[in-house]
Amino acid sequence: MKNIQTIITGHGKYATGIRSAIELLAGPQDSFKYIDFSEGMSEEGLTKEFNKNINTKLTLIFCDLVGGTPYKVAAKLAFENKNIKVVAGCNLASLLETMFNQYNSLDNYANELVKISKMGTQILELDDISSENEISKDGI
């Protein structure tokens, strides 16, 4: 997705953990940046990291939690810059499914991330499985 930059951020090593999973499953992504909010990092330090990594194109900031420091800092930046959109609480599956698509707006991209996250969140119902053979042994 070359027309929109994605910055993934969160508490601890959330961003680098997501990076590791993405690179294992789909390879490096040029339009993705990863910013951890590490222990001891201040809000000002996180703001500097964001500003260092935000380029001039459309930017979606993907946060781990609504209301956490990474989210609050991202929200302030989005308030000041109409080319920034913030989503929170989405999952790895949503990033993997959207990364190869092209979106004509930040709103479309953000809405698709949320939609896919909701669809991919499920409870394993054991009553629906007739035998162990129906569960894939290969994984992803």
TrEMBL record:
It is found in: Cytoplasm. It holds the Pfam family EIIA-man. The keyword Transport applies. This is PTS sugar transporter. GO terms for cellular component: cytoplasm; membrane. GO terms for biological process: phosphoenolpyruvate-dependent sugar phosphotransferase system. The keyword Kinase applies. Its main location: cytoplasm. Residues 3-124 form the PTS EIIA type-4 domain. One of its GO terms (molecular function) is kinase activity. Keywords: Cytoplasm, Kinase, Phosphotransferase system, Sugar transport, Transferase, Transport. InterPro entries: Bacterial_PTS_sugar_comp (IPR051471), PTS_EIIA_man-typ (IPR004701), PTS_EIIA_man-typ_sf (IPR036662), PTS_IIA_man (IPR033887). PROSITE patterns: PTS_EIIA_TYPE_4. Gene3D superfamilies: Phosphotransferase system, mannose-type IIA component.
